[in-house]
Design goal:
Two copies of one chain form a homodimer. Chain A is built from twelve helices and seven strands. Chain A is α/β, with parallel strands linked by helices. The first copy, chain A, has one domain: Aldolase class I (TIM Barrel, Alpha-Beta Barrel). A seven-stranded parallel sheet of chain A has the order 2-1-7-6-5-4-3. The N and C termini of chain A lie far apart (39 Å). At the A-B interface, helix 3, helix 4 and helix 5 of A face helix 3, helix 4 and helix 5 of B.
């Protein structure tokens, strides 16, 4: 098994102002709190970040704001995969130029039933345009994208771009799939999307976790990673599982934002862009419960 | 039943140059040929047009090229629905300002399982930003978007925006769904996505058809519409069905482009952007067959 550091990257929520423009101040404040609380880095503009509801320009400005306010580029793996290659290229080149560790890249996701050859061509087109400094983390989330990252596709990409394909985030929820990826490609960083899979991920030689609930429970998940071989590992696992279980009963993105709002005593964090709807007030008690389980965030 | 003109709008393919940039010259030539051959208008930047592989800027420039070259704005219903509202607003405002008859608007399509309330909010956000000159044709294509346009959603939108919601294109393939829409909302223009449903669509009070195969068989489909009540209607239906049937055995977008390339004796029309792959050479005979069935396009 490859010796590697296990890491936690947060798919950080994107706060919005009352007019639904991007709220950079709250974004930066939350980002810093997450790093202080134990995250190794951030994966902004993922699914939990409502990335696909945010324009190319807004994403670039927000990424620059993080770096300008003290998040080191090596701690950043922004999402850059759009439907149109020119947008993916623009975002990926921008992140690469800023020195980001890499980019988390969705395949083009409107068309379904595409061949591995077609999806390979889509990645190749972006990689060839951005150049050799790019590091790509493939984003497998078939339940949203409808376009899976197959083992065959990874193999083809690694054969042509061995120094550029750096890893994969498996948001499919299938441990079997994650295990296949780690086993077939042990040298790339394979992240699970749920902290509930951390023990399996680490034991199999994976790279850690990029999970929505890291927005709310970074210290708990950090403690689990650090204590995996310690005497309290079962209790630590139970804490993160209890938090996660509450979220599983609610619409995930609005619920994560509502919990951050309550943790930070700032209702502004709860706002979402359509097609999401802000969490209904009737769920306030459930959110209080999850915040109690997770504890407060490190204040800034 | 409402008296209405039955119309054919072509979801026109988007030709690309060898470097995969948008090929405006071929785009305009094909557009004009389609109008001359019997189409009432064009619905550029739909699914067949590879719209979601084309950037906002490219789409705006290409739409202007059509108008600058003699396609009347009243003949144009461009697709404008993107994942990010700001992009949808930019495209819809641009088309509206140019005087286009309306826009064909996908819902934001990355997130799945969204509530009707959330999708309503997404449309409302765009409509409110563009203003009262906008005319929206809702685009129901759940097999690609993953976000259906439900009867409840249409009802909510019509209640608030009765003069803006102008119609719907039903690409679901379900005649039952189309019939429900026409029956519940007889005053809006409801288009089928397959010419095979033209007889049902017209009999039920629908508005006609926006079909991929109109790129290849505009004269045949025009003849069917014009001859629906004539003595040859069965033969006309068989001609369009025979053409359609060939396409159903192939990857649709690459096959349509290959057929246009053969009809126009110009292989440049066959190019696709990833994630599509150009039709394999082994299908050339099948394409010849469909071109023979459809006949040549009116030369320009």
């Amino acid at each position: 098994m490859i010796a590697r550091k296990i890491e936690l990257f947060v798919p950080i929520i994107t706060p919005f102002a009352p007019d639904l423009s991007l709220d950079t101040e709250r974004f930066v404040a939350h980002a810093k709190a997450l790093i202080v609380s134990g995250a190794d880095g951030l994966a902004p503009f993922g699914t939990t970040s409502e990335a696909n509801s945010i324009s190319v320009r807004e994403r670039m400005a927000a990424l620059e704001a993080l770096i300008d306010n003290g998040i080191h580029p090596s701690q950043l793996i922004p999402g850059t995969g759009c439907c149109a290659a020119v947008d993916t290229i623009t975002l990926s080149a921008h992140a690469t130029k800023l020195g980001c560790r890499g980019v988390l890249m969705l395949p083009p996701f409107f068309y379904k039933g595409m061949s591995d050859e077609g999806v390979f061509n889509a990645y190749a087109q972006v990689i060839d345009a951005v150049g050799s400094d790019l590091r790509v983390y493939l984003y497998h989330i078939p339940q949203m994208s409808g376009v899976p990252i197959t083992l065959n596709l990874i193999e083809r990409l690694l054969a042509v771009y061995p120094s550029i394909i750096a890893g994969l985030k498996d948001s499919s929820g299938s441990w079997e799939n994650t295990a296949s990826v780690i086993s077939a490609f042990p040298y790339i960083d394979t992240y699970s999307a749920s902290e509930s899979l951390i023990p399996e991920n680490v034991a199999a030689g994976g790279a850690g976790c990029i999970s929505a609930s890291l927005n709310v429970n970074p210290a708990g998940i950090r403690a689990l990673i650090d204590g995996l071989n310690g005497p309290n590992h079962q209790a630590l696992y139970e804490q993160v599982s209890a938090v996660r279980k509450v979220f599983e009963s609610l619409p995930l993105v609005p619920a994560i934002k509502a919990a951050v709002a309550q943790q930070r005593s700032d209702p502004g964090y709860a706002r979402v862009r359509p097609p999401f709807v802000e969490l209904a007030a009737e769920n306030a008690d459930t959110i209080s419960e999850v915040v109690l389980l997770a504890g407060s965030q490190t204040p800034q």
